[in-house]
């Protein structure tokens, strides 16, 4: 390390060149480098590191980078622990030491639990002030973890001893003093406190039963003792009577390091229930023979080797065989074609000692018929060893016939269940997608509502400012206002996309011919696509009427066409096909539509296509594969929302390298097609002198609308809520127009206010406005509507049109 320290560029640090280092640093460094113990120096306010070779393994992969670096930069992972310790040494001037200090140190990219013994000693400069810290220490992780494992192992063994299912105890010395007794032992002796007591004192009722004498013999001879089902009289409750128990017991002598017997390990199992069961078993064997003889099913008993020892009455009556075979082969009762299988199953089961089941045909002696039976044979064990086999044969001929019929039915049933399961899974997936889109839709709708209110204030006031600042000397101001207006219009366009995605934008549907609409867009689409993309529009039906918002449908087609253009950077073909399709029940369910006739607009490109991962997220809002700044990720979301809001559906088929086809489906209608001329929004709007009740809870929006209407000559009264407006309707007997927001605080919405006003003031006109509505706009009936954000010309034109009866 001395060479590394000499070669290091110290002049780039606050420590400066080594030739200028103070004597205190030189002395400390000399001690550090010549020490065989891991040693380092933290110098100066930044605590820059110098260390010897023995210390270099401590920073691990941070060596040799750590040389000359500030301590906080080197020890970022443990600075919350060691930082205050360094500060304590600097501020108090006193040394600090710690043992088995846990430091969460990062090694090999993983934070590991490490333990250390180390000391921090202040280094004082020539003026006596602390200028550094002398650090010595070593890692104790292995020892700490080993001690922890040792403790855990002892605790584990203790738990195993205490939780062992059999009873265990440790007796010390020739007097057999209890050192340990587990829970099972204490349960056996009635939870008595025996630790530290002689066995004769702790269990006085056992005296005279031979157990104490056996313990003395084991201790004296060193020979272990084992007994099975030994009876013992124990008092299992304080001052209660003795109770006979049976135990399997082992006394195992324990020797010390010198080989001398120091105690006895007691281990055993309370087998009282087993002894009782065996006694009961012997009694039941007699009953078993009687029961099997009179059982209604055909039964038999075999020897351990499988040879038949006995047939019951039902077997004898069915087959005509005697009680015991006596030279007659039992296989003669079974069909010749089934005997080989019977013998094979029997041989394998006897070899493995396991039950077996086999189906075979048996001959009924009364009519000579062969009928199917299921034969079940199981071993009967005693003390773990097989001492007999018991068999039973049950007639299943009628059941087997029924099973064949049921199997044929199940074949068709499985097919129907599989089809229904697939339909349910598809429906569940559609529901999950719809729920996700609805939840995001609520978010975007609320967002658009607030943003549209703000944009109404921005655009409206810009219009007002432009009017008041008009003049040649204000050209720069006019340009700035124009730029701000364009920005606000772009934001308004974004909110309209959000509302389209959320399916909450107000639509103006009309019945139109799809082919005519798309055909009229050809020039627009060709300009949007550019010269490298060839456009082909095909209509396969003479008439394709649908009821949708024409402007929104045009926007959707343009949006999809531009997406297709971006997927064909080197050029290609775009085909728009209009056709009529009839959806049956299965196809309609998959698209979440009612069955019926639909008009399909298919937009197909020869572009790069989409992967499965991209295709799965294609309708998610704000998801885009375009570069930053070249797409908002709302285009397809807007198309999805508009199509669903219009009662239709949209689907996408795409594969990488094979192009993409987007299909829009809208219900086909039969009403005559209407052509509605677009409103002339460029014409100057005229004002008037009529009275207007403005209902708006947003102060900025209300102030703007009031200013615009009053400057145009209207008499304006403003209230903040629908409740307030309802209360004051009687004050406005000569009211000409109610201009109200749809969404307002309180219990009265703009739609509810409009309906109430129609009853109380039938001559008053109503104009609704909103940036977003939680109530379906269909509830508005035939009331006129103005979307936020609105411009001054929009507002004046709409007000004039409503007042004039438009």
TrEMBL record:
Concerning SUPFAM superfamilies, the annotation shows: ATPase domain of HSP90 chaperone/DNA topoisomerase II/histidine kinase, CheY-like, Homodimeric domain of signal transducing histidine kinase, PYP-like sensor domain (PAS domain)
Q: CDD domains from the xrefs?
A: HisKA, PAS
EC top class, in one word?
A: transferase
The record, for Pfam families, names: HATPase_c, PAS_3, PAS_4, Response_reg
- Domain PAS residue range list: 284-353
**What are the residue boundaries of the Histidine kinase domain, all occurrences included?**
446-670
Q: What is its EC number?
A: 2.7.13.3
| Naturally occurring in which organism (per UniProt) | Sphingomonas tabacisoli
Does the keyword Phosphoprotein belong to this entry?
A: yes
Catalysed transformations (reactions): ATP + protein L-histidine = ADP + protein N-phospho-L-histidine
**Span of domain PAC:** 228-283, 356-408
Q: Which superkingdom?
A: Bacteria
Keyword field: Phosphoprotein
Which positions bear 4-aspartylphosphate? 741
Q: Does the keyword Phosphoprotein apply?
A: yes
Signal peptide (from-to): none
Q: Would you tell me the protein name for this molecule?
A: histidine kinase
Q: What are the Response regulatory domain coordinates in residue numbering?
A: 691-803
């Amino acid at each position: 390390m001395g060479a590394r320290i000499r070669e290091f560029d110290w002049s780039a640090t606050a420590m400066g060149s080594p030739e200028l280092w103070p004597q205190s640093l030189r002395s400390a460094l000399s001690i550090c480098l010549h020490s065989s113990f891991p040693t380092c120096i933290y110098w100066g306010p930044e605590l820059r590191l110098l260390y010897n070779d023995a210390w270099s393994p401590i920073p691990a992969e941070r060596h040799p980078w750590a040389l000359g670096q500030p301590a906080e930069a080197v020890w970022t992972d443990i600075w919350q622990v060691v930082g205050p310790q360094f500060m304590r040494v600097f501020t108090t001037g006193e040394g600090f030491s710690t043992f088995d200090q846990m430091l969460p140190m990062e090694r090999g990219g993983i934070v590991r639990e490490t333990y250390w013994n180390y000391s921090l000693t202040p280094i004082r400069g020539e003026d006596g002030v602390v200028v550094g810290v002398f650090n010595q220490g070593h890692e104790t992780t292995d020892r700490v973890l080993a001690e922890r494992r040792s403790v855990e192992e002892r605790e584990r063994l203790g738990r195993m001893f205490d939780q062992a299912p059999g009873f265990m105890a440790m007796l010390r010395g020739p007097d057999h003093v209890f050192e340990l007794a587990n829970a099972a032992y204490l349960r056996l002796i009635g939870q008595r406190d025996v630790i530290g007591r002689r066995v004769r004192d702790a269990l006085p009722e056992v005296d005279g039963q031979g157990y104490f004498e056996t313990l003395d013999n084991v201790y004296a001879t060193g020979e272990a003792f084992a007994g099975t089902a030994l009876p013992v009289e124990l008092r299992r409750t304080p001052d209660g009577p003795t109770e006979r128990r049976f135990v399997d017991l082992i006394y195992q002598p324990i020797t010390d390091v010198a080989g001398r017997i120091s105690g006895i390990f007691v281990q055993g199992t309370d087998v009282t229930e087993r002894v009782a069961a065996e006694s009961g078993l012997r009694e039941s064997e007699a009953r078993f023979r009687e029961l099997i003889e009179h059982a209604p099913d055909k039964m038999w008993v075999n020897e351990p080797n499988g040879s038949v020892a006995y047939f019951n009455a039902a077997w004898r009556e069915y087959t005509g065989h005697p009680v015991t075979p006596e030279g007659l082969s039992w296989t003669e009762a079974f069909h010749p074609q089934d005997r080989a299988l019977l013998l094979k199953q029997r041989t394998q089961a006897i070899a493995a000692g396991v039950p077996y089941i086999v189906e075979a045909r048996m001959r009924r002696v009364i009519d000579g018929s062969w009928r199917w039976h299921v034969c079940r044979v199981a071993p009967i064990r005693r003390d773990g060893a097989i001492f007999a086999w018991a068999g039973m044969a049950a007639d299943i001929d009628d059941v087997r016939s029924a099973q064949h019929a049921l199997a044929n039915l199940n074949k068709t049933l499985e097919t129907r269940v599989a089809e229904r399961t697939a339909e349910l899974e598809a429906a569940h997936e559609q529901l999950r997608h719809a729920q996700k889109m609805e939840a995001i839709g609520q978010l975007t709708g609320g967002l658009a509502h607030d943003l549209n209110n703000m944009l109404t204030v921005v655009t409206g006031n810009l219009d007002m400012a432009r009017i008041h600042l008009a003049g040649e000397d204000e050209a720069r101001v006019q340009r700035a206002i124009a730029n701000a207006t364009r920005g606000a219009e772009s934001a308004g366009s974004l909110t309209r996309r959000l509302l389209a995605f959320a399916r909450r934008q107000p639509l103006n549907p009309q019945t139109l011919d799809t082919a005519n609409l798309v055909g009229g867009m050809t020039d627009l689409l060709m300009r949007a696509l550019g010269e490298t993309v060839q456009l082909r529009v095909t209509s396969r039906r003479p008439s394709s009427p649908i009821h949708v918002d024409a402007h929104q449908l045009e926007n959707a087609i343009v949006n999809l066409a531009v997406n297709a253009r971006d997927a064909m950077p080197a050029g290609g073909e775009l085909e728009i096909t209009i056709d009529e399709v009839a959806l049956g029940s299965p196809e309609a369910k998959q698209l979440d539509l009612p069955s019926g006739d639909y008009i399909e607009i298919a937009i197909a490109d020869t572009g790069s296509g989409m992967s499965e991962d991209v295709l799965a997220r294609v309708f998610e809002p704000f998801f885009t594969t375009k570069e930053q700044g070249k797409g908002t990720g709302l285009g397809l979301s807007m198309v999805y929302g508009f199509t669903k809001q219009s009662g239709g559906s949209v689907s996408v088929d795409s594969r990488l390298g094979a192009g993409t086809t987007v299909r829009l489906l809208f219900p086909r209608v039969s009403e005559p097609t209407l052509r509605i001329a677009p409103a002339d929004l460029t014409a100057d709007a005229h004002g008037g002198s009529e009275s207007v009740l403005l209902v708006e809870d947003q102060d900025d929006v209300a102030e703007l609308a009031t200013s615009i209407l009053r400057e145009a000559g209207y008499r304006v009264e403003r209230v903040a809520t629908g409740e307030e407006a309802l209360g004051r309707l009687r004050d406005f007997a000569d009211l000409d127009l109610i201009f109200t927001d749809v969404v307002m605080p309180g219990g009265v919405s703009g739609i509810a206010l409009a309906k109430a006003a129609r009853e109380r003031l039938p001559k008053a006109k109503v104009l609704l406005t909103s940036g977003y509505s939680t109530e379906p706009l269909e509830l508005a009936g035939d009331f006129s509507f103005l979307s936020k954000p609105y411009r001054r010309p929009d507002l004046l034109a709409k007000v004039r049109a409503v007042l004039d009866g438009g």
